[in-house]
Amino acid sequence: MKIAILAPTVAPLTSVGGLGDVMQDLPKFLESVGNEVITITFNHKNKISYLPHEKKKTLGIKYQGTKIEFDVIETKHPFTGVKIVVFSNKEFNQLDIWDPIKYEVFADLVVDYLSEFDNIDCVSGHDWPCGLAIAKCHEKLDLPTTMTIHNEAFKGPVVEYKGCVMTFLELGIYFSDAFNTVSPTHAEEIKSIDFIREQSKIKPFHGIINGIDLDLYDPIHIVDKMLKLTDGKLDPRAYGFICGYSAEDAHAVKPKIKFSWFYNSKNLKNYVESWNNMDKSSISGTDVEIYGDLKGNIETPLIGFVGRGTYQKGFSIMFEAFPEILEEHDIRFVMLSTGEKDIEEGMKDLAESYSGKVMSLIGYCPPLASLIFAGSDWTVVPSVWEPCGLVQMESMAYCTPVIAREVGGLKDTIIPLHYDPYNNPNFDVATGVLFKHYDKYGLKWGIGHALNWSFYKLRDICLFMRYKQINCPESPYDKQAPLSMMMKNCYHHTVKNLSWQNNASVNKYKALFGGAIYNHYI
């Protein structure tokens, strides 16, 4: 099949979240199973035109009576080699990535560009920015179309098209031949929405889990990845201890990374200073502000958080629960986020209120995300809702278990430690802890459960260890300690079940496209 993928953002070029990561990976793996793929996007902030490229033509469209010209440039993704077609206009490039005007114009640009092809089998749109484009491709070009919902909470503006007054996302779903969201559990959750339930009765609707690319997220390549994300300009080995590691030696290497970068935080501060002084015109990222400091010994637990600064990600219960958690437990907490101003202020206040225990990194710095996953003992993902989530997968790829809410894709991707390990000790398969209720008590239980069975109750675990004919651990990082076991579980679970290479999601997308083609023509 020849597939045109409409992508609002593409990591690491113009990415601000998980959507961009999927738009980097999905085309690569669709090509790996025999498809021809074109990714179509905008030249946000001129980021893509810094790559070697070729100008193919100029498209002129009218918007509210004004003719606007766009260069059509072609390039290849720097990591995957997939062909990218980019619309570029110096004024539009500077508009906010999510400006609705961009995507009204995008719809007409896509139609004009694709009208010259007679061999496109399916057009695949992703999230609300592509909804109007999917509707117009379906109606004006008579092409099979699919719509992927990455986060139904963001629907875009209401517009009128062909007599339908709907949001961009709803138009994309309504005019698509098949649609999906990004995890099986979330597919069931959003069927409570009348519009989605009605559409799912008349066309194919599926939950297809996202994945991660092991070529990028294998911890053995962490140094190379951090180098790539800085365009080769910042070598992390010049700032603190870091090296590639595997599931077999994660228990020995990860604590050293934690201590070097976070408990000897001058290394991290020097790295951030160098990052802030870099020219970032050709890479994704913003300057980072550091608040707070961390002090501890190598066995002091470190919990990490990486995510966008939005309500959805669980900040309200983190700000409510962590003051109590920090008083009750001798732990450290590091956060990397940027977004809503009140959330950034809350991060700053938490760090300043708990000197030596909390560090808040406010900004968007992809290599720091890898460092937090590698250096943390646990990560926390306490989302209100989560269609799929990639943070928990990235964390587990780096051999770091996850404390998360039992919702959406988090439920689908994390193997939870049993609530009663005395009677059901599943340390040999667990990859995290799941809690149900979105309140501070749920989060406190989740963190307490994780810490109890990885740091505090090592003696209590001896019965389980003896049953397995294993010596009792004296340290959380002993090779046969529960935390070390879960580190290995995380990596192997990611490889077998969560990677694009092995999770069958690419074939499910092929089936989705096939269903759309059948539904469109038959």
Automatic annotation (TrEMBL):
Residues 2-194 form the Starch synthase catalytic domain. Residues 299-447 form the Glycosyl transferase family domain. Keywords: Glycosyltransferase, Transferase. The keyword Glycosyltransferase applies. One of its GO terms (molecular function) is alpha-1,4-glucan glucosyltransferase (ADP-glucose donor) activity. SUPFAM superfamilies: UDP-Glycosyltransferase/glycogen phosphorylase (SSF53756). Its EC number is 2.4.1.21. Transmembrane segments: none annotated. It holds the Pfam family Glyco_transf_5. PANTHER family: ALPHA AMYLASE DOMAIN-CONTAINING PROTEIN, GRANULE-BOUND STARCH SYNTHASE 1, CHLOROPLASTIC/AMYLOPLASTIC. This is Starch synthase.
